[in-house]
Amino acid sequence: MNPYADSKNRSTFAADGATGIPWVLGGLSLAATAAPIVGVFFK
């Protein structure tokens, strides 16, 4: 395993994680909002 590639992937992963946090929060809030609506349709 190439240690350089590993460290590069780790820093890329950290940057992606920092960028992804708002998307995760948005997705969770969207799911929380959609769950009751979907529940009404599937009752």
Which helices and strands occur, and which strands form pairs?
Layout: H1 3-41
What's the domain count? 1
- Oligomer designation: single chain
Distance between the termini: 52 Å
Taken as a percent bin, the fraction of beta residues is under 5%
Order of helices and strands: H
Number of DSSP-assigned strands: 0
Poorly predicted sequence stretches spanning 5 or more consecutive residues: none
Q: How many helices in DSSP terms?
A: 1
- Helical amount: over 70%
**Radius of gyration computed on alpha carbons:** 18 Å
Global shape? rod-shaped
Mean pLDDT: 77
Structure classification: mainly alpha
Q: Can you summarize the main beta sheet?
A: none
Q: What are the defining features of this structure?
A:
about 45 residues; rod-shaped
Task: Walk me through what this model shows.
- It is a single chain.
- The protein is mainly alpha-helical.
- The protein contains 1 helix and no strands.
- Helices cover 91% and strands 0% of the residues.
- The chain is rod-shaped and about 50 Å long.
Summarize this entry quickly.
It is built from one helix and no strands. It is 91% helix and 0% strand.
